[in-house]
Amino acid sequence: MDSVISLTGRDFVMSVADVTAARSIVVMKDTQDKVVELDRHRTLSVAGEIGDAIQFTEYIQRNVHLYELRSGTPLSTRQIAYFLRGELARFLRQHPYQVNLILGGYDADGGPSLYYVDYLGSLHRMPFTAQGYCAYFILSTLDRLYRPGMTLDEAVSVMHQCLAEVGERFLLQQRKFVWKVTDRDGTRTLPQSADTFM
Predict the structure, then answer these.
(1) Which residues 6+ apart lie within 8 Å of 9 measured at CB?
(2) Nearest to residue 138, comparing CAs of 117, 165, 120, 112?
């Protein structure tokens, strides 16, 4: 039961994800960071089976780093999105990964961008999106509250309203979330990560 939410602002991408690793009715861990830093300016948020999520994100992270070492230039967010899509489509025919992804990044020439990628390899660039069960009702909340060019404070306010909706709608409460922002200075974790939502 994952909750992963991301949106783009004026000059940043914000990603918020729950930190729970659960199977059936058992919570195995409550410190699982589901917003993985691929490099300094890109994050990959993941929802899905925890084993597949860890294995696939590490595979992508290592390949992005390997490409940079071989070529001497980092991949753009768009290039990583197409690589993700291709790898998911290829693995779909061999060893399917049950993961849904949100790729967020900041490029010096293109600014912030956000890509939705599902487990079938469907790819779409979006201003905001969500993955996991929360997407069923958070997308309408984001559609109502999101405005292009939002400031960081406005985005934090929108995310708080989204998480309040998650707390109200879910039978099982998700109390801990990690908040990450990616902008021209890199990726950083916001202090809201310490917040507890009930």
Answers:
(1) 112, 149, 150, 151, 152, 154, 155
(2) 165
Fold of 3-192: Glutamine Phosphoribosylpyrophosphate, subunit 1, domain 1 (3.60.20)
Low-confidence ranges of the chain (pLDDT < 50): 194, 196-198
Three-class secondary structure of residue 87 per DSSP: helix
Quote the pTM value: 0.91
Tens digits of residue pLDDT in 83-93: 999 999 999 98
Residue 196: what pLDDT?
47
CA pseudo-torsion sign 37, 141, 194, 133: negative
d(CA 8, CA 151): 10
Distance CA 125, CA 114 (A): 6
Mean pLDDT of all residues in the chain? 91
DSSP symbols for 170-197: -SSPP-BEEEEEEETTEEEE-GGGG-B-
